[in-house]
Amino acid sequence: MTATALIPAPIPADHRLSVSISGAGGAGAVTVGLILLEAFGKAGFYGAMTRSFGPQIRGGESAVFLNLSDQPIETLPEATDLHLALDWKNFMRFADEIPLTSDTQIFYDDSREKPPQGVVDSGADCTPLPLMTTLKQIQGGRINMLGLGVIAQRLGLADTHIEQALQKTLGRKGEEAVRLSMETVRLGQTLVEAAKPSPLQNWQPTDKPRWHLSGNEACAIGALRGGLKLAAAYPITPATDIVEYLAPRIEKRGGQVLIAEDELAAMNMVIGGSFGGQPSMTATSGPGLALMTEAMGLAVASETPALVITVMRGGPSTGIPTKSEQSDLNQILYGLHGEAPHIVVAPLNVSESVPVTQWALGLAERLQTLVILATDQHLGQSRLICDPSPFEDMAETRGLTRLLAHPNDPADYHRYALTDSGISPLTQPGMEHGAYTADGLEHTETGLPSSSASDHSAQTEKRARKLTEFDYGDDWATYLPASKSKRLIITWGSSFEACKQAVARHNAEAKKDEQFSLLGLRLLMPLQSNTLRQLCKGQQVFVVEQNASGQLFHYLLSEQALPKSSQSIARSGPILFTPGELASTLRRLTKEGK
Amino acid sequence: MNMTEATKTQMNKAQAVERLDQTPVEVRPAKPNDYLSQNHPVWCPGCGHFFVLRALTKALAWLNRPPEELAMITGIGCSSRLPAYLSSYGFHGVHGRALAVAAGLKMARPDLTVLVAGGDGDGYSIGGNHFLHACRRNMDMTYLVMDNEVYGMTKGQPSPTSDPDWHSKLAPHGTGITAFNPLGVALAAGASFIARGFSGDPKGLTKLISDGIEHKGFSVIEIKSPCVTFRPEQKAWQKQMRPLNIEPTPNKLEAAQAIHASDGFDTGIFYQADQPVYAPASEATHSLDEIEQELVL
Fold first, then answer.
1. In CATH, which of 1.10.260.40, 2.40.260.10, 3.40.50.970, 3.40.720.10 is domain B34-293?
2. Looking at beta carbons, which residues of chain A come within 8 Å of B68?
C-alpha cells in the first residue's frame, strides 16, 4: 500500500506479450490459460489473466486473455499478439474484448468454420492448423492441449515448465491424465515453427518466489491475516470464490464458514459472530449487498465490527453477473438509512487486495463499525503471478485490534460511553461484569433504548467522530506525481492499473508541463477531503471510473474535494478501460487544454 | 447482579460444561432475580410476557448458568425487548433476524448458552426463512416464541398465527388466511425439541424452558402469551390451556399426529430427539505461513 511513488516507466514492447484463447464450452480454453500462466510463472516470469464467459453454466463459449512479462504486470492486454481459436463458435461475442490488430498472429483449426468476417477485417494473420486431424493420432487427447503445444512451441516455452504447470493444474486428475496431456502438447509442438526471433529472447527470468492467485483469493488471504474467524455468506457471482477459497482454509485457522439461507441472514450472522468477539465477514455482490443493507445499519448502530466484501458486477437488478462494472459506488456510500457513517475501502489492484482486506478487517475491529471493501469482477476473478505480499501484523504496527474493556463492576461499564476518540471499549460474552445489550435502537451510553434528542445527537456524533478522527496515515490513496504536472487523474479500484499504464505511456512522450499525475483513492469513506482539496489545488482534475454516470466524480464534487473545473471520464462496463484507450484520451485532453 | 463469591467459584466454565450431563444439579445457589437487570419492561400491565420473563429467570436460576455466559438474542417487537431486562449479554437487532444473529454467535462462541426470543410476527413472518433454516441446522440453542397472534408494537395487526376470521383495522373482514402452524413446521424442518407452553402456567413453563435449554440441539418453545391490549379475549386462554397428557416422543410420525391433532391449547413437549447438532470443530491446525505456501509457484 505505497502512498507516494514514482510513475513506473512503461514496460518495453520486447518485455511483454499478450496471448488470448477462445473456444466453445468444454473445449478447455480456460484450462489452457491457467496452465500457460502457471508455466510462465514456473519459467520465472510474471503475468495476469482474465477470463470472459457467456452466461451458460456449462457449454458456453469462453475466452481468456493473458498479459505476460518478465516484470510485474497487472493490466489487461490491449492488443493480442497471439490468439488461439479452438473453434469459432460465437467468437464474435468476444469481439469487443479480444483486441485483434494486423500484428496479431491467429491459429485456428482448419476442419471447421472459417474465421468470421470481423476477424478477417482486423487484418490479423490467420493461420489454419490441422488440429482435429492431428488429434486422431492420440487416443483420448484433447484439442486444448494440442493448442497449448502450439502456443508453447511458438513462444519457445521450455517443456519442464509446461510439465510442472500441467502437474499443478491437472494433477488431481491423476498421473495418466498429466502424461496424456503432455503427450498431446508435444504433438501440438510439431504443428508450428518457433517464432524467430523468440519473443522471450530479452526476458530476464527471476528465481524469486512468486505467488499465483486471484483477486478473490487475495481478499481471502488478507482476511485470514487479519484474524478472520467467521465467514457467513450466500452464494453469488462473482463473490462466491472468496468463500469457497476460505472454506477449507479458515478451518485450519480455527474459524468457520457458515452457509447462510440468504444475504439477510449472512449479514446478521456476521454481526452475531462479531458480537461473540470473533473477527467476522461476508462476501457478496450488488444484489446481495442490497439485501444486507438493513443489517449493515445494525452493525453501525450497535457498533459491532463487521467486514463486507462486495465484488461489483454489471447492474442494476440481475444485470451482468459475470462481468465487471464500478457502478455500485452510490449504493456502497449511500445505501444505508439514517445517519450511518461507515468505512469504504477499495484495493487498486489484485496484489494489494491482500493488505487492503487485512486493513479493512482491522479497521472494523478497531473502530467497531461496518467496513465495506469494494472490488469488482475483473479484480476478483483475474489471476496473477506477483511478488508475495509481505506480512505485517497490523494489530501490532497500527493498533488495528479491538479495544477491550475490563470492568470490575457492572455498574461501571458503559458500553456506548462517550469518549474523546469516540471509540467505547468493548466487552464480549463470557467477560464477568461486562454484560450489556447491543442495540439497533438508539440508546444511552449504557445501551438502554432511548428516543431522547440528546442521546441521539450525542451517539450520532460519536459514531461519526470515531471514523473522522482516526488517523489513516498515508494509506488513504496512492499518489503518483509528475513533477511539473498541472493535470491530475483521480480514479479507484480496477481502473487504476489501466490509468497507471496510460499515464506512464503518455508521460514518456509528453513535454513535462503536459504530463499527468495520478491519484488512486483507496479510502473512499470517510473521504480525506481536506488533503484531497490541497492536492487538487491549481490542477486540472479528471475523474476516471467504469460507470455511466460518474458516481465517484459526483461524490467528490459533493464533498467539495474537487475544483469546479474538474471533468468526468466515465464509461459503463463491462468492457474495461485499456491503457491505449486512456492514453489517447490523455492526448486529446492535452490538446484541448492548450 | 448479586452473586456471592462462593457462587462464582462454583460457576467456572468446566463445571458449566459438565452440568450438561448432570441433572438435576445438587447445589442451586443462584436466584431468579440474579438474572434480572434494573430496567423495567415497556410491556402493558397484565401482558403475558411478564410471566415469561419470570419463568425464564427461574429456569436460568434452576440451571445455575452464570449470567455472563448467557446471550439473549432478539429481533423487533414487544417480546424482543427482553434482553434489556436480563443481566446477561444481549443483542436487540433488527426485525426477524434474531435466529441469524444467534447462529453466527453460536458458531463463533460454542461455549455460550445462546437463547433467542421473539414474537409470532418476528419469527414466523418476516423471519420465517431463518426459522426454517435454524430448525434444519439444529444448532444448540433455545428459541422462545411469545405468540399472542397479533402485532402488538404496531398496535394490533393480524399476524401469521391470527385466526382467519379475526377482525382488525388492517383486515376488517379477517384475513381469510389459514393460521401458521409453528410446531408442525418446526417438526418438518428438523428441530429436535418442540414444545408449547403458556405464560399463565409459570411452573410448567419454567420446566419447559429449563428442559429446552438442557436439550442438545435446536429447541423451539412456542409460548402462548396473551396480548391484553389488542387481544383481550385471549384472557380466556387461562381456562382453555391444558397440559398434554402424553410423554415426549422421538418418533416424528407420533409427534406429527399429536401436533396436528391438538386444538392449539395443549402444553408440553411434543417431540424430543437426539439429532445431529451443527457444531463444527474450531481448533487451529495450521499456521498462516503454511496456508500461504500454497500460493507459492
1. 3.40.50.970
2. 429-435
